[in-house]
Please model this.
Amino acid sequence: MATLRQKGGFYFIDYRVSGRRIRKNVGKTKRIAELALKDLEVKLIKGELGFDTKKETDLSHLFEEYNKYSTTHHSPGSQRRYKAIWDNFRAFISHYPYLTKISHLSPKIFMDYQNYRKKEEASNTTINMEITCLRTLFSLAMKWGYAKINPTNGVGLLKQEVNTSPEFLTEAQCKKILDKADDFMYPILFTLLNTGLRKGELENLEWKDVDFDRRKIKVQYKDDWSPKTAERQIPINDDLYVLLKKHKNEFASNCPFIFQRNGERIASNYLRKRFMLLTASCGFPELTKIHSLRHTFASHLVMKGVDLATVKQLLGHTDIDTTMIYSHLTEKHVDEAVDKLTFGSGA
Model:
């Protein structure tokens, strides 16, 4: 039940909702404070505050429901990543058999989880990603009516080094890679360099996603795949237009995918293996991630003077802060900008 207390000339009501302690300031007047206390007690009795625990679902059921949701809303790679996170969290709470419902969780539990993962030698970056995913999970639980409060609220992220210099290829490296690429890898690498597509977006790209008349590539939802962020359109430049037209004439078949292996979608880890072999043969084996081609696309656009807002749109970032990792590349253009002024030059 609720309790009325006085401190420093103010009255406070202390009460708990779903195991969470709440302290509410109700002013300096005792009579008003008492009325507020009675009103709150009535609401507590009627269940108008907090979440009706009779409707609450078990954590195991929530995880099952999220796995179903993930199957239809996330790519196979994301599904595996999220499942691994739920498995890590389930392994942690298995040490606390009394934690069976969402209302049993508190911010302290998730802070203990961070310590648990640190002892397993997980990096701060990995732990932060896991907390972010768990926060998303419990936000969905609220939307689904399974919880009233997100138990991860108030859980801070661990400090981590921010990579302000994304890994990207020079023009010379790009030329060398393309020169050494075989007939299978060349059109894939060329498309990635000219569109900034994510690897998963390219692997799921179908001919119906290419509008040759409008010269646009559409990154859009499929029955069995969803883009990481919102749908978007990417312009097709002249060189890519020629390549895709030629590729369609030579390789289009009954398979809907633009880039395929044996008439089927490319396996998720195949391109990275091929990319690593290629970069090693070119003399820069440190470039192991095919995602560096997406960074290359964005970095060279910025270095050629394209504004960050446009780069954000092309990459499909939901937040400009994500695009800001390329901001240091604009410094040269900022330095050169004032040289274009001619005030008082006598011209």
Notes: The longest helix spans residues 124-143.
